[in-house]
Design a protein that fits this description.
heterodimer; A: 301 residues; alpha/beta; Rossmann fold; Alpha-Beta Plaits; 2 domains; six-stranded mixed sheet; 11 helices; elongated; B: 259 residues; mainly alpha; 10 helices; ABC_transporter-like_CS (chain A); ATP binding (chain A)
């Protein structure tokens, strides 16, 4: 079951080129979906379309299995969102800010203290939201999004402005919300490293096109498949010749042989062949590409 | 309806401590405070005026004079723009438009808050007028004060018609403020339109100017020969109010970007 399904959605601002081009997105229920892409890739536009903040021009958007256009209010009652910078009334305190939204959502009054406790802002008292640090504002924005116990959280770069400990706290909070409360979360970021410890599913977008969408496990497999093996020998030219004879793709780079991903057995076999042909093997190393470089490769291509 | 009430409550909370909030109180009591101070510090003049059976008419006329010509229209321009701009200033349109309420509820609840604030202002102004006579009378022992019956019916009628004459300003300022992010645009246009309306008052078609009805009504109360003959400008005010509100609503719900 998917919480969000976006099919063939395109979008352009006035007569400019398309900022989104036939986007397809599937956010599984109960997942933490990392929506990745460099700045200007189309992440925020996609999220704003999902929330109905901009009018859909082409394609279909279904949330909780229902068309957004026809069930807007019902759908929005189950969604909490934080798009770009937090939306807060600077002249009001944290509690007053939450009261403003509590009236609309008609959530119980004691929920205000609960969410403030959750995001670590219970101590802010009479301090106005306008005087908060960026990190505090971000956390209050999350509290607003959580106020009505949503089933789906849409967070656009929520770690912006947070210090490293704030990022870790946010990650833990989102994990808890997902695992203990069953909230599906879609979180956008331009930094894979920042969310790879958090997400279960990944979508990568660049220049308005989806480049990749699958589970994090699948992305890890790609990472593994993209890993390379280095051979360091006393006669690289002869060793390379022997490898080619065994139909193994390899080339010499910076005085060492670089081969594509090989199984453990294949590595042992090559080693035996090299030694049998009087080639001294000084080292064999497997280097796995990190997720960051896979992301870079995808977005650069 | 429930949704509208909840939305109204939410909108009402937002204005707490804002300039618009204070504008209602300061604006409501500003002129009465001046007359109260006059009554306290110049008791001879005040007690002399109390002897006149026309005491309340004179006091009200004076109070409305400064209010109707400039302060009231200007205050309405400012308060409407400030309340509406609160969302742009705090970058909250996107949050508001993703709450589970219809766009109509969002539009009309905010609009209703402005109208109720205007009513609040009129109540405070009238209370202020009463206090501006009562307090000096208590201080200086003006026994005549108790002989003068407050003309409630006149007060109610005058206030109601001034309220009606303000509504086109509220509706047009609301329309402009919803469309422009920059606070200076609605404020500048509002002041510009108000000045244009004042300049055009002697023009035979001056009644077509939507910001002119408060001054026209004030002059009609004084029976001064300024203003349209045989034209009931209150109907014009009502017509403009309905027209601007509908246009504003259509523009709001059809806005391409909602935050």
């Amino acid at each position: 079951m998917t919480s969000i399904q976006v099919r063939d959605v395109s979008y352009q601002f006035s007569n400019q080129e398309y900022v989104l081009n036939n986007i397809n997105l599937n956010v599984p229920e109960g997942s933490i979906y990392g929506f990745l892409g460099p700045n200007g890739a189309g992440k925020t536009t996609t999220l704003r379309l999902i929330l109905g903040l901009i009018k859909k021009q082409k394609g279909e958007i279904e949330i909780f299995g229902k068309a957004f256009d026809k069930h807007r209010i019902e759908i929005l009652s189950k969604i909490g969102s934080l798009i770009e910078s937090p939306s807060l009334y600077g002249h009001l305190t944290a509690v007053e800010n939450l009261k403003v939204w509590q009236k609309v959502y008609q959530s119980p009054e004691n929920r205000i203290a609960e969410v403030l406790q959750m995001v670590g802002l219970a101590h802010t008292g009479r301090k106005k939201a306008g005087q908060f640090s960026l990190g505090m504002k971000q956390r209050l924005g999350i509290a607003v999004a959580l106020l009505h116990n949503p089933s789906l959280l849409i967070l656009d770069e929520p770690t912006n402005g947070l210090d490293p400990s704030g990022i870790v706290e946010m990650r833990e909070l989102l994990k808890t919300l997902n695992q203990q409360h069953g909230i599906t979360i879609i979180i956008s970021s331009h930094l894979l490293g920042e969310i790879e410890k958090l997400v279960t599913d990944v979508g990568i977008i660049n220049k308005g096109r989806m480049l990749f969408e699958s589970s994090l496990t699948e992305l890890m497999k790609r990472q593994h498949a993209a890993s390379t093996i280095y051979f360091d020998t006393n006669n690289n030219a002869q060793a390379l010749q022997l490898m080619h004879q065994q139909k193994i793709e390899a080339q010499i780079e910076k005085e060492r042989i670089v081969a594509a991903q090989l199984s453990k057995q294949a590595i042992a076999q090559i080693n035996q062949t090299l030694v049998a042909n009087s080639i001294e093997v000084y080292g064999i190393r497997a280097i796995e590409n990190d997720l960051e470089s896979i992301f870079m490769n995808l977005t650069n291509n | 309806m429930q949704s509208f009430i909840h939305s109204f409550q939410s909108e009402w909370l937002k204005k707490k401590g804002t300039l618009a909030f204070w504008l209602v109180f300061i604006g409501g009591f500003f002129i009465p405070l001046i007359f109260m101070a006059r009554g306290i510090f110049y008791p001879k003049d005040f007690l002399g005026e109390l002897k006149s059976p026309m005491f309340w008419d004179v006091l009200m006329n004076r109070s409305w004079q400064f209010m109707a010509l400039l302060l009231l229209p200007l205050g309405v321009v400012m308060a409407t723009s400030l309340v509406t701009q609160l969302e742009f200033k705090n970058n909250t349109w996107k949050q508001l438009n993703t709450t589970p309420q219809s766009l109509s509820v969002i539009f009309f609840s905010k609009f209703a808050v402005i109208i109720v604030m205007l009513l609040q202002f009129f109540v405070l102004f009238n209370v202020g007028i009463y206090l501006s006579a009562l307090i000096p009378a208590l201080i200086h022992g003006g026994a005549d004060f108790y002989q003068r019956t407050l003309p409630f019916a006149f007060m109610f009628k005058t206030t109601s018609l001034f309220f009606l004459d303000c509504l086109p300003i509220v509706a047009l300022q609301y329309l402009i403020s919803l469309q422009f992010k920059n606070f200076l645009v609605p404020l500048g246009l509002g002041i510009g339109l108000l000045l244009a309306s004042l300049i055009a008052m002697n023009w035979q078609y001056g009644y077509t100017m939507p910001y002119s009805y408060c001054p026209y009504y004030f002059f009609s109360l004084r029976q001064t020969k300024i203003g349209p003959n045989q034209v009931n400008f209150h109907y014009w005010a009502l017509g403009y109010f309905v027209g601007f509100t509908l246009l504003s609503y259509l523009l709001f719900i059809n806005k391409k970007e909602k935050g």
